C-alpha cells in the first residue's frame, strides 16, 4: 500500500476495518443461528422463517443470510431424519427400464433375479420432442403393477399429470415426480393430498433452496425422498451434471432421505456404477438406475441403461464386505436419446 496516495490509503484502511467488522458479525450470527437450530432440534429449512426473511429482502442481506444459513445447515448432523419413501436403514437400489416397453417382463425378471426389492419404469414419459415415445399410460402402469406383483417387487413410477395422478397412485408404492415437474406446485399439492410416498427429483436448474421448497409442499403430508438426477452443466459430454455435493447438502439441510439417479445424472451407462458407489460412500440413502435386457432396443434412454451383467456387478459391489471399487467403464458413450 506504500505507493498509494494518502487519501487512497486512508479509504482502504476504512474499508479493511469495515470488512473485518462484517466478518466478526457474520461469524457471531453464524454461531447464534447454529445454537438456535440446535435448540429447536429441527433442520434449518423453515417456511415461516423463509417468509420473514423474504420480507426484509434487500440486495445485500438476503444473499448474505442465505449463504450463512446454507453453511450453518451443512454443519449440522440431524438426530432424527424424516421418514422417507424407502426403508430407513441401509442403501436401497431401485432398478428398471426407462419405460414400460415390450421387454418389460424380462426386465422385471432381471431385477428380481438380482435380488432387488424395487423396480422402476415409466408409463408416462416426459420427452423433449413430441414425436419421441411418450409411454403407453395407464394400461402400461397396470402391466407394470401385475408383473411386479408376480415377482414381489415394489414399484416406483412417474406420474406426469394431475389428471392421471388419482388412478396412478393406486398402482404404485412410490410415486415419482420427474425433474420437469419438480416445481409443478399444483401437482405437488395434489400428491400431498393423495397420501402416497413421493420420490421428488431435482429440477435440472433447481437450486438447493428451490428443491427443498418443492419438498416442503409434501413434507408433513407424505413421506418424501429427494432424488438428485443431474443439473444442467456446460459440458456436452454429459447429458446432465450429477451434483453429488448438492445431494449431500440437501440431505443435511432438509433432513430428507436422499437418492441419486446417475443414469439421467450422467447419461452414460459406464458411469452409473462408480456414481452409485460414490453416493453410498457419501452417506446417501439409495440410487435409482436404468437397466435393460437390450439397451439398444429401449424406446427411451438406451444409452444410459445398464446391461444385465452390469447390474449384477453393481449389486455385487454394493454387497456388505465388498471393497468400494467401481468396475472400469467398458463402453464408449453414445449420443442419441
Ligand atoms: C425417469 O426417471 O424416467 C425420468 C424421466 O427422469 P427425470 O425426470 O429425472 O428426467
Ligand atoms: Mn429415462
Descriptive labels:
337 residues, alpha/beta, 12 helices, binds phosphoenolpyruvate
Task: Describe, in plain words, how this protein is organized in 3D.
The protein has 337 residues and is α/β, with parallel strands linked by helices. Helix content is 43%, strand content 10%. Strands 1-2-3-4-5-6-7-8 form an eight-stranded parallel barrel, surrounded by five helices. Strand 2, helix 5 (137-150) and strand 3 (154-158) form a beta-alpha-beta unit. Helix 1 packs across helix 3. It binds phosphoenolpyruvate and manganese (II) ion.
End-to-end gap: 58 Å
* Percentage of residues in helical conformation: 40-55%
- How many beta strands in the DSSP annotation? 8
SSE series: HHHEHEHEHEHEHEHEHHEH
Q: Enumerate the spans where pLDDT stays under 50 for 5 or more consecutive residues.
A: 332-337
CA-based gyration radius: 23 Å
What count of helical segments does DSSP give?
12
**Strand-pairing-aware structural class:** alpha/beta
Enumerate the distinct ligands: phosphoenolpyruvate, manganese (II) ion
Order of strands, widest sheet: 1-2-3-4-5-6-7-8
Report the sheet-strand fraction: 5-15%
Query: Mind summarizing the main beta sheet?
Result: 8 strands, parallel, barrel
